[in-house]
Structure formats: C-alpha cells, structure tokens
Design a protein that fits this description.
Methyltransf_11, alpha/beta, globular, single chain, seven-stranded mixed beta sheet, Methyltransferase type 11 domain-containing protein
Length: about 230
C-alpha cells in the first residue's frame, strides 16, 4: 500500500538533497526570479533596499547575493535541512542571517521591519495568501516592496492545490500550494492594502514550456485612515 505524507517539513527536507555528501557552495553570479539562468528581471524589482526578508529561501542563493552587496538580509526557511546547509555555505557572509521557521509564525513573532520582502518560488506560493499578506504588510517599512515569483500553473487549477513529490521508499509526499493567475494575485494584493501592483506571467525562453508568474506590490508611504473623511 502506497504511503502518503502531508508533512511540509519532511517535503522540503527532501528538496535538492546533497546526494553524495556535503556539496560546496554554488557560485551565485546573478539574482534570478525564474528557473532559467539569465532570463527575466533581477534585483531591480526590489528597488534599493537597506534591509530585506526572503520567505522560503532554501539554498539562500539570492539572499547571499544581496547580502554580499551590502543589504542586511534575513532568510527564512521551514526545513532544518535547508537551513543547516545554507548556514554552512554562507557562514562567511556577515550581512546574512538565516532563520528556521514557518512564514506566518515568524512574521507574527518578528519585531523588525524591512524595506523589501520577497519570495522566489518559495513560501508565498505555499502559504494561504489571506493569512500571509497582512502579516507581510505589518513587517514592511512605509513604501516597502513585496515581490514574489512562482511557476506558471495550469489555468484550470485555482486556489489551494496539492503538489506531489516522491520520498524515500517510494513514499508519495504532498504539500499545499496556492495557484492563481496574475490578475487574481493582483486582486489579493490590493485587498490587503498594497498599491502599485503589477502581476504578470513572464513567458519561458525559447524551447522551454513553463513560464514564471511575477507579482510586484508596494506598501503605501503613509497608512490610510479609513475612518477619516473629507473636511468641510
């Protein structure tokens, strides 16, 4: 009988494992939003942040790239396996802090604010947006940037959907992800108070099939007081 696991930590512990013993850190030469090297925009989507938080950082490639350029970066991941490897790889990058935890729980307990919060095929894709987006907004500085990307999903899949993987001994693993077209992501961001929202699907390069959904949003410079009306 096929055994199934719906343990997100177990799922992400199995992501890109070191199959032949500890691997050396990769050479990171660019900030990438897609799975295709050199395809699409780069770190300019974050503006010029002094501080940044990455949600679902896994190997912390982009976090390390930013930190080496003077940004104080906190990188968060759910998996202790990913966190241990990233800390080993980037221990000599002083501007990078790598934390272990679930995105919503971390944001509730965090007392810092950030100029940018971002996620690259990471936790934003795998967390209920109506729970996550308000927490992100609370941790952003006024005018701060919230940007994320994830793989293009079939149009018939919307909302919460299972994603499947294979674990040890043929065990089937699942993790929930939230599938929305760009226009729905834009509506969700607007609903939670973000402005200047741009959501699009970047087509894949020639010869590849899977595009990348990229969403950019910003927190207003000043909080809007919904209770105040025009003065007579």
């Amino acid at each position: 009988m096929l055994r199934t696991s719906h343990d997100p930590v177990f799922f992400w512990d199995r992501y890109k494992p070191d199959r032949d013993g500890p691997a050396p850190p990769p050479e990171v030469t660019a900030f990438e939003w897609t799975q295709y090297e050199g395809h699409g925009p780069g770190a300019e989507l974050l503006g010029r942040p002094r501080t940044a938080l990455e949600l679902g950082a896994a190997e912390c490639r982009e976090a390390s790239w930013l930190a080496r350029r003077g940004v104080r970066v906190t990188a968060l991941d759910l998996s202790p396996v990913q966190v241990e490897r990233a800390r080993r790889w980037w221990k000599d990058v002083p501007a990078l802090t790598i934390e272990e935890g679930e995105a919503c729980s971390f944001l509730r307990g965090d007392d810092q604010t950030y100029d940018a919060v971002y996620s690259i095929w990471g936790a934003v894709w795998f967390t209920a947006p109506d729970e996550l987006f308000p927490l992100v907004a609370k941790r952003l500085s006024p005018g701060g940037v919230f940007t994320f990307s994830h793989g293009e999903t079939p149009q018939h899949l919307t909302g919460r959907q299972p994603m499947y993987g294979k674990g040890p001994e043929g065990r089937e693993m699942t993790v929930d992800r939230w599938c929305h077209p760009p226009e729905t992501w834009a509506d969700i961001a607007h609903k939670h108070g973000f402005v200047d929202v741009e959501a699009r699907c970047l087509p894949a390069p020639t010869g590849q099939a899977l595009g990348t959904i990229i969403v950019e949003a910003r927190l207003p410079e000043q909080a809007v007081d919904a209770t105040s009306g025009p003065r007579g």
